Amino acid sequence: MFELLYVLLAGVAAGVLNAMGGGGTFVALPALVAFGLPPVTANAVSRVALVPGAVAGAWVYRAQLAPVGATSTRALTAVSVSGGAFGAVLLLTLPAASFEAATPWLLALATVVLAFGRRVSRALSTGPVMSTRAVLIGQFLLSVYGGYFGGAVGIMMLALWSIGLGLDAAESNPMRIAQLAAIYLSAAALFLVASDALSAPLLLTVTLIGAVIGGFAGAHMARRMPAGLLRGVILTTAVVMTVLYFLRG
User: Of 5, 23, 28, 46, which sits most exposed with the smallest number of CB within 10 A?
Assistant: First the structure.
């Protein structure tokens, strides 16, 4: 029971992190591995379990969704769904070691971009740096990463939009949660069919319940935060996740 409580709390923490800044996979995945699941199975289970929490967060934010620059929400979501599915296929067919090795460096880059992206964007141009096509290509690549491993993909998403379009992290957070839900949904659908994610139904259920609670609560907390404080929470989360990934490696 103590171990199940640990997994439940990890699910809650993962849901809160995903709703407020990203990095929920870093909490959920180690908890499942510590329980004895193989890493690839734990990755699939965590992705399936985090879907309802991401959807709950997106539902809370539904009235605040705004397009990412000139890119339509429909096009962005379609790219997220297809990229998430492609990343899930890669996870099921390729070794994850090399991709995980690059994750700390990707996070470090994303953290720097989050901190200075808007300033760089303003210095480079009076308008957006990236075209709609470039935004969609970048979103597809991040969605592939999200379907394959997913650690802090939301942080990287905010970094892309910050440097490419000069968007504010707090204002972009509702769309980040919606796109995270799209990525997780398509990846989870494949994991349920083609992986052994259902081989640990108890762990899956407990993590899922925790993630729903955390996602719903975290989204409500983020909505009530002043924009400046939310930006600080997102950036702090990015820094902490980056340091933890480097320490883990």
Answer: 5
